[in-house]
Amino acid sequence: MIILALKIKNMPINIEQKINKLREELRMHNYNYYVLDNATISDYEFDLKLKELEKLEAENPQFFDPNSPTQRVGGEITKNFKTVEHKNRMYSLDNSYSKEDLQDWEKRIKKILETEDVSYTCELKYDGASINLSYENGVLVSAVTRGDGFQGDEVTANIKTIKSIPLVLKEAFLENFEIRGEIILPFDGFNKMNEERIDIGEEPYKNPRNTASGSLKLQDSSEVAKRPLDCLLYHIVANKNPKATHFETLEKARELGFKVPNAIEVCKSMEEVFTFIENWNTKRFDLPYETDGVVVKVNSLAQQDELGYTAKSPRWAIAYKFKTEQESTVLNEITYQVGRTGAITPVANLEPVQLAGTTVKRASLHNADQIEKLDIRVGDTVFVEKGGEIIPKVVGVDLSKRPSNSEPTVYITHCPDCNTELVRKEGDAKHYCPNEYGCPTQITSRIQHFISRKAMDIDGIGAETIELLFKEGLVQNYADLYELKEEEIIPLERMAEKSAQNMIVGIEKSKKIPFEKVLFAIGIRFVGETVAKKLANHYKNIDALKQATFEDLVNVDEIGEKIAKSVLSFFKIDLNNQLVERLKEYGLQLELSEESQEGKTEILNGKIFVVSGVFKIFNRNDLKKSIEDNGGKVASSISKKTNFIIAGDNMGPSKLAKAESLEIPIITETDYIKMLN
Ligand SMILES: NC(=O)c1ccc[n+]([C@@H]2O[C@H](COP(=O)([O-])OP(=O)(O)OC[C@H]3O[C@@H](n4cnc5c(N)ncnc54)[C@H](O)[C@@H]3O)[C@@H](O)[C@H]2O)c1
Ligand SMILES: [Zn+2]
């Protein structure tokens, strides 16, 4: 008896605790996902937990809390932007994973509407970050993120860098309205950004969605402008919408100049909705961007009004989530690749398996932590997923199929290539081979980088030829290329007189490649194409760059501490200096050419400018370019060395105070133009 009473007494407390624990957990995941753009569990796992909480709350209404993650849109506002209240709330969407869920939804809405006569629009669910654009008299006036649904971050300046978003509409449409869409990063652009990151030895970005969302939160719009973001629109909010249906409204949006994808259909029944879903479940892999489901919406706007909203989502819409393309297969072997910067990447060699239309044999295992976290072992049956990334990834292990003699994976301690002991810096997920100048793969990858299209663009030599030349002892570094002789090359495997000649011609031609590309080619870590261009324009020749101090470097516009340190350590190494001197002797361009100086003047003669605020005549980047083209230099922050500050509207108060205390003249853009004339 006593035991029973205790049990009954304890039960509600347990459920309450369980509910609170789930709420806590979900709040943490929301924070990781929306604020840090770095989720630590899969969306599917997240959705399961949310559904579990929904169920517990429905069964135990006494624990209702308006602040529960089931009652609120998951996002948050950040402190880095102006917080703006939404005129019309922004909602999330209810999720479903099965046809039954959709049929239940249909029943619910038909019951509320008291009619069988409902048609739907089906759209794809674009995977990015939601945005609300406000137009007044045909002009874009603000762009705000969803935030917590009530208020969001005002990111107008960043949004204006996205070329497909019309700043002024083709025709007037209502006095004012809002249009909502998804900021996405197409696969192409995402993969290109990652190639560049890998190129300079940075960890690649995880996935397009996080990267798109993270890009919106960058403080520097010129950085955002470099990212190939796009915006797909799906909803107009207007007081006096002249259209009667959602579909017609979207057509109108398209006419106004917005990018509204074509994969939209009006469906007269759930059967037609299912057909749309099935079609796009496979066709979506041909799209240039990521989609994670289909959004089904009641087409009639009058019916939408009648249905209204729950605390979190419209009743008139529901998302159907695609299942991620996943297959299981056997992991035969783990091999380790050495990158140009010495970074080690573990690779899963798989029993070939068909996945999303391609045969997959290899998949990325990321790093030692990932292998340990998932306890991945050779012989395991593993789950492989393919997203928009070039290389598929292993996401889990089917433990029920683990062989009884399986052994935990022991990560390598020494370089598979040169046997040097690997190192791991604090805060870095990857292991590195520190033998930068002796490790064969690092040597050949550096030469391969040197000849690559974006660098010296040497025709007639490919990556394999470099390996061959290295193996044969003909080149040890990129400078050796310029000593190669035809008669040395001809006897090599798979070489003929013609190909040897082509190589020599290609190498000779590369002597004309401009300085900024040479600077990129010599492979200073973190100096990518853009940074190389910046440094070349600022320092004009390699010797000036070599003499730059840390303070000089970090004061160059857009050059941070990491790059500055890397430049300094590159020139601390004798071998690098010897190579650079040799390149100079061979006649490579180690200073800006006269041609690239054309149209440029020396009027500003080394004067250092700091640019601050928003400008009317120039856009910020053009202003900086103009300063550099006329012999001036642009610095990132105000110091004693600054000669002038060109101030636009909204110059930051701390900059203003600093300028005044150092008595540095503050001029307008008009003053600047006068200075040039
Ligand atoms: N893994 C994690 O830790 C974690 C944490 C939080 C949230 N999540 C995931 O995020 C999702 C929840 O995020 P959410 O609240 O933004 O909901 P959601 O992304 O599932 O759906 C709502 C959003 O879909 C977007 N959308 C795209 N195409 C659309 C279209 N054609 N029509 C209308 N809207 C369209 C809109 O921006 C809208 O705000 C869930 O899938 C969840 O799994 C994951
Ligand atoms: Zn090595």
Terminal Cα separation, in Å?
A: 98 Å
**Taking all residues together, what is the mean pLDDT?**
90
Give the CATH level 1 class of the largest domain: Alpha Beta
The CATH topology of the largest domain corresponds to: D-amino Acid Aminotransferase, Chain A, domain 1
Count of alpha/pi helices:
25
What does this structure look like?
Keywords: DNA damage, DNA repair, DNA replication, Ligase, Magnesium, Manganese, Metal-binding, NAD, Zinc. This protein has 6 domains: 2-63, Helix Hairpins (Orthogonal Bundle), CATH 1.10.287; 83-321, DNA ligase/mRNA capping enzyme (D-amino Acid Aminotransferase, Chain A, domain 1); 326-401, Nucleic acid-binding proteins (OB fold (Dihydrolipoamide Acetyltransferase, E2P)); 440-512, 5' to 3' exonuclease, C-terminal subdomain (DNA polymerase, domain 1), CATH 1.10.150; 515-596, 5' to 3' exonuclease, C-terminal subdomain (DNA polymerase, domain 1, Orthogonal Bundle), CATH 1.10.150; 599-676, Rossmann fold. 38% of the residues lie in helices and 18% in strands. The chain contains 25 helices and 20 strands. The strands form 5 sheets. A 5-stranded mixed sheet has the order 2-11-10-3-9. A 5-stranded antiparallel sheet has the order 14-13-12-15-16, with no helix packed on it. The termini are far apart. Residues 1-10 have low confidence and may be disordered. The protein binds nicotinamide-adenine-dinucleotide and zinc ion. Nicotinamide-adenine-dinucleotide binds at residues 29-30, 32-33, 39, 41-43, 46-47, 73-74, 92-93, 95, 123, 125-126, 130, 146, 182, 234-235, 295, 319.
